[in-house]
Every structure is written in C-alpha cells, then in structure tokens.
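Q: Sequence in, structure out?
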Amino acid sequence: MEHPRVVGHLAQAEGHVAQGEQHIARQRELIAELERDGLDTTTAVELLRTFEHAQAIHVADRDRIRDELSNGS
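A: Exactly. Output:
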C-alpha cells in the first residue's frame, strides 16, 4: 500500500483505539454505578467484554499498520 494511504489508515486506527478506550472507561463507570446501586451488572459486564474484545482487534490492527509503516511497505 502506498505510504500516504497507510498513514491515513494509521490515523483512522489510532482514532478507533482512542474511542475504544473511552467506551471501555465509560462502561466500567456504569458498572460501578450499577454495583453501587445494588443492581444487576450481567448485561453491562457482557457489553464491557465485547468492547474489550473489539479494542484488542483495534490495537492489533493499529500495531500492524505501524509495523507496515516502519518496514517501509
């Protein structure tokens, strides 16, 4: 892939990672609020796990693109 295009993909991947961090942090806050209020957290925890799985994919994608750039491809 040509360099400017890869840089664009990296910027997009960095955005996904940042956004994922925000979603995960907010979901953890929501879970803490539910726990504090004595409410069921099952669904909220399942959603957190989904966010964490997606985040792992985003991080891996970002890291792959970084490697591609550093290797001059």
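The helical segments are 3-36, 42-70.
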